[in-house]
Amino acid sequence: MFDYARTMPDRSLPPRPPARDVANSEVPDGIPTRPQGDVAVVVRLVWSDGGEEWRAARAIRWTRTHVMVAWREHDTDPRSERHTWLRAGDVARSISWFVPPERTPA
User: Within 10 Å of residue 83's Cβ, how many Cβ atoms?
Assistant: First the structure.
């Protein structure tokens, strides 16, 4: 009856690469059922392909030993949001141990 392909504007997004698995994901024994907050954190992710990275995320649930974090694979794409549980040792509210870049004298 209707030809939607001709009447709808093309709003297709570029194809997304397949999501990598988080190798250091670990679900705690007792899981809080409701979100507990939205705290900015930095997380250590170990990927199933052996890669490792630190990235900005948000802590949304936690226990004494684990933290559920959320982050976007692509900052501008809300559909790319991912959630995973990590051990508390892989999550930090701030970091001071990164080595700053070398500065040249002015």
Answer: 14
